[in-house]
């Protein structure tokens, strides 16, 4: 059983079968992935941004806190330095007036530099300045003189904060720079009093100091003093926000930088300095890059998913579907129900293929049964025809047998062999003779028909001249022609070649056609018989009549056995409807053709051809023909 296998060029097949499905599927998958991407990616991106911004904020705040802590450390460290120097017997005795060279000896330039000190003040218990020494202090004190500096320091509150044995630290705004101040009571080295006064140390927070702090912390640090009248808007807002929230604030400056602000307050809680830590927005950029990579990953994953899905869809569904369609199409083209669809696997497609195959098997079976039934019918029909033929042959033969003696005895009686006959008897005998002849002709027709039908007619072919055949047939039909009162003329072309024909069958053809021409022409009409060379080694015989003619529809069925035109039937002209059918079969048996032209009420022309026996030496034109009138 032939099956269609998977075609080699599957993609071409697919394009041929279902391009729409592929495109539609890709579109659907694409849209689905796009929405999935949006649903997943947008929130994810928001989360990434949020988290990284949070991280940035957290980092900036912690940097600000580190900076503030460092300044606090600075304060504590200065306080420690002050404590170390204030709780010392040498300092103690200096204030008591016993150690005059102490200041120059201990607090020399080198000591200021090493300890990053800018100011040293020693006050006695009465508040008198016992020592006042500065180092690189001009920038810090600005326009203020020493008295003004002293006034600011003593009114800063730092002195009020110190106890009998512990110190205090404060930030004081000098006209030039903020100053970290620390104060400690002057005690003995064993931290016992009574206190001889107060030692005050100052370290200015100048740019170099801030840079150094920033470098230590690896931060971009700036310090804004808050005692200036023309504070920047940002600074003012930041201070406000910090005091409201109690925590450092983070403000993005540009897309690339962010600033964190924190407050350094005095011991009384008054904001004195605003610390600004500026950093690049690396974290946010990392967040952005992460989001971008996530997007790229999503897109690539989506495309891979789409590609894979399409591929799978192609492989699992569309190719198989295309293959199935192609198979069914091929069956349709071949119209061969023996073909089967071949689809591997166990899925809906193989199920469908099986169903198609089962349907094809059922159709094939039905077709087979139908063919068998047709063969049986044909056989039956042939049997029927054969028995009809046998019946016809037997009946015709049996009918003809008694006809010959009937006609023979009538002839004998007409010739007076049986004695004298009266005129009435003669008339009756003539009627018997005439009707038996007609019946004989009919029976003969039936016999010939039967023989033609059975292919049992063998032609006895010989070279024959057409003219004598025509003359002999006309002589045979003389009585009918006279009774019909029609005239008959014959035109034979000179040098007409002989034909290759069976003499008896040629007579039969001529007799049938001439009989019809005479029979279907009214009294006074004319029948003309012409025989001429028809070309292509054929002799053409044409029988013209001026009879009743036929319609086109009638002509179409003319040569069908037993067919008789309605008009003729109405006119009560006797006949069997076999004459023309026999004539055609006999002409064709000779290798010729028969045709008819007719116009109702005007007349008809029947033409038939027969192969020439010998080629004519010359064919005379029609006006040289001889005419024989009967
Ligand atoms: P039939 O025995 O009826 O003449 P044919 O086979 O010879 O049978 O002719 C078939 C039919 O063809 C006739 O019945 C008639 O209707 C028509 N026919 C044949 N020859 C002619 C003709 N020359 N003119 C008109 N009709 C004709």
Descriptive labels:
alpha+beta; 630 residues; six-stranded mixed β-sheet; five-stranded antiparallel β-sheet; binds adenosine-5'-diphosphate; disordered C terminus
Distance between the termini: 74 Å
Q: Which molecules are bound in this entry?
A: adenosine-5'-diphosphate
β-strand percent reads 15-25%
Strand order in the sheet with the most strands: 17-18-16-15-13-19
Number of DSSP strands? 19
Radius of gyration: 70 Å
Shape: rod-shaped
Report the uncertain regions. 5-17, 615-630
Q: What is the mean pLDDT? A: 84
DSSP helical segment count: 19
Binned, the helix content reads 40-55%
Q: Structural class of the helices, strands and pairings?
A: alpha+beta
How is the main sheet built? 6 strands, mixed
SSE blueprint:
Layout: E1 3-4, H1 10-17, H2 19-86, H3 89-95, H4 102-106, H5 109-114, E2 119-124, E3 129-134, H6 138-141, H7 146-154, H8 158-161, E4 168-173, E5 178-185, E6 197-204, H9 207-217, E7 220-225, H10 233-245, E8 249-252, E9 257-265, E10 271-280, H11 282-334, E11 340-341, H12 348-414, H13 423-453, E12 461-464, H14 466-476, H15 478-484, E13 487-492, E14 499-502, H16 503-519, E15 526-535, E16 538-545, H17 552-556, H18 566-570, H19 579-589, E17 594-599, E18 603-611, E19 626-629
Helix pairs in contact: 1-11, 2-11, 12-13, 13-19, 14-16, 16-19
The structure holds adenosine-5'-diphosphate.
Overview in brief:
54% of the residues lie in helices and 19% in strands.
